[in-house]
Amino acid sequence: MTCLKSCMSSPNECNAALRKCTISILIDSTKLLCCQITSYCSLLSLSSRIFPLKPQNEYIEESIKKHGRRMDHDEKKRKKEAREVHTKAAMAQKLHGLKAKLYNKKRHAEKIQMKKTIKMHEERNNKHKADDKPVSEGAVPTYLLDRENQTRAKVLSNMIKQKRKEKAGKWSVPLPKVKGLEEAEVFKVMKTGKKQSKQWKRLITKATFVGEGFTRKPPKYERFIRPMAMRYKKAHVTHPELAATFCLPILSVKKNPNSPLYTQLGVMTKGTIIEVNVSELGLVTQSGKVVWGKYAQITNNPENDGCINAVLLV
Amino acid sequence: MTRCTSTLTGHTEAILQVCFSPDGSKLATASGDKTVRLWDLLTETPIATLTGHTNWVQCVAWSANMSYLVSGSMDNTVRVWDPKTGKNLGNALKGHNDAVTSISFEPMHKNINCTVRVWDATLRKLIFGLSQHTAAVMAVKWGGEDVIYTASRDKSIKLWDSKEGKLIRTLNGHAHWINHIALTTDLVLRSGPFEPNSGIIGVPLKFSSAQEAFNKATERYQAHIKANSEKLVSCSDDFTLFLWDGLSSKKPITRMTGHQQLVNNVCFSPDGRYLASAGFDKSVKLWDGKTGKFLTTLRGHVGAVYQVAFSPDSRLLISSSKDSTCKIWDLKTFKLKNDLPGHSDEVFAVDWCPMGWGGGSGGKDKCLKIWKC
């Protein structure tokens, strides 16, 4: 027992102690088992050493290990493998009906797979020249090699074209068609007057942009009320080429496709074109001036979402 | 330089380097479309397209006697061309195992034949290899005093004996990649026998014999070296520049701080009085070429400044930038003299003609622009 304890306390001496231990158990196992053994685990490990537990049903492997294989094992194996195609072909000819269908499908898939693997191996084996590598696009000088490659915003391609488009008020936009907005949807009629009988005031129910220096008309004469809660100063603008989004200040509402009245009022709905301040993006014109204002189209429903998402028109 | 005299198209990829011939009659452009193009500057027309490389051509250089043009490419080879015919002389010079980033010629006053020696990121083959740098070599210069300078991304500059290829000295000090080095003798070595402002625009100067050209080159170099000893300046990713007198000492003359972003390019004025550095912080800074004292900052670019070049008379400076413009700076007033818009994308390379009558620039918009006074 002392021996067992010592083996628990110091694993280094474990083996030697165990050997001694087993001898003592073999001599008088009943006596030992009667003893109180504190650690159940150690008993288990001990017993597994004494009577090794084997996985079941590995008698074939066991036999091979013990006696080796039959003399003609390899030859038979080779022949069987060589014959396999013939057996398979014979099978394919013999089968009919649903089984044939399934079998042929399986063979077909196997053949495709095999051809693919062969091709892959062939590709791996033939030696490629270093210059077979395709030349990548976007050449950069040596001093820009290995630098963190930020995708660069292209310089505005053609200023004249842009100006012309501006004049016509037409842009090729990501959202070419928008749902029409009825006046009833945008404007809520407000009843005014002592008896609440006048109905000439309108409350705008959509998101609006109100310029920096805007002062309201005296409330008595204000026909269109733009609630403070629905006013926005900034928009989340995505640059399609950079694939990055920036929070940019809105400069103005350029065009609301639904009605010129909405444009005038600064109503921002889905599809509206707004002008945003892109100076922090660092875009430059051909003459090297920093581009300041640029157009973007709103892509979400600001009145529902509580924010404005837009795509920059490049 | 005030106007763009021509916009030469032809390349199908970005132009990566622009290099005037020493006599100012031709211009070579290296491009990402695997070709080098030669342009005639008298008529401003293309002469030849030099095809052969199989990847981006990163650098191009002329020998001082105009007999060779050499280009180095991402395909790990260097090719030698005959600028007269545009033919490839021999096969590609292999030996590098990575992209060729910089090429330098032996100065003409030392060797009349201007033998070609080849350089690369890590190795120099053919004659001897210089392989002690542990990272890509970004710039290589062959000084006038039998010394080869190499600057590498492993933060060191090494000086080599150009006869035997032995290491003379290692200059340490930078804390990050070294991007470029410049010598006070750059222009005089590059232009060899050709005196600035001595010929008519675009018309090559003729020397009766090679010996005469050699004598002229030696004379020019001696005059220059008498006025200024050969000094070296290096610029780095650690936002600083170092001024070295590499021939005599291991210690830098000064460390020049002030840039707020990495310094990409540096250039000595041909008379050695000024030193200009181009930083990614959108500014060009001017320093005293002798002491390294800070003079002024030239602001005006709205994008990272990529390259700078001095005019041969040291009166003007041109800088090219990511913001698609080149700008000319006056060194008398330290002000912007001219803005040269016209490129429609980043300007990667700019060069001032060694003859002094103009410059050329090329960039991502695939056009070469010739600027004249």
Automatic annotation (TrEMBL), chain A:
The keyword rRNA processing belongs to this UniProt entry's keyword annotation: yes
Stretches for region Disordered: 65-85
Residues forming coiled coils: none
Domain of life: Eukaryota
Cellular component annotations (GO), alphabetically ordered: nucleolus; preribosome
Keyword ATP-binding included in the entry's annotation: no
Main location per the UniProt record: nucleus
CDD domains: NSA2
Location of the protein in the cell: Nucleus, Nucleolus
Feature: compositional bias, Basic and acidic residues: 71-85
GO annotation, biological process: ribosomal large subunit biogenesis; rRNA processing
Reported function: Involved in the biogenesis of the 60S ribosomal subunit. May play a part in the quality control of pre-60S particles.
Family: Belongs to the eukaryotic ribosomal protein eS8 family. Ribosome biogenesis protein NSA2 subfamily.
Assembly mode: Component of the pre-66S ribosomal particle.
Name of this chain's protein: Ribosome biogenesis protein NSA2 homolog
Organism of derivation: Clydaea vesicula
Organism lineage: Eukaryota, Fungi, Fungi incertae sedis, Chytridiomycota, Chytridiomycota incertae sedis
Name of the gene this protein is made from: NSA2
From TrEMBL, chain B:
Segments annotated as WD repeats: 8-49, 50-91, 130-170, 256-297, 298-339, 340-373
Nucleus as UniProt keyword: yes
UniProt-listed GO biological process terms: ribosomal large subunit assembly
UniProt xrefs under Gene3D superfamilies: YVTN repeat-like/Quinoprotein amine dehydrogenase
Predominant location category: nucleus
Keywords: Nucleus, Repeat, WD repeat
Superkingdom field: Eukaryota
Keyword Glycosyltransferase belongs to the record: no
CDD domains noted in UniProt: WD40
Localization per record: Nucleus, Nucleolus
GO cellular component annotations of the record: nucleolus
Cited InterPro entries: WD40/YVTN_repeat-like_dom_sf, WD40_PAC1, WD40_repeat_CS, WD40_repeat_dom_sf, WD40_rpt
PANTHER family on file: NOTCHLESS PROTEIN HOMOLOG 1, WD40 REPEAT PROTEIN
Protein name (record): Notchless protein 1
Organism: Clydaea vesicula
Encoding gene, per UniProt annotation: NLE1
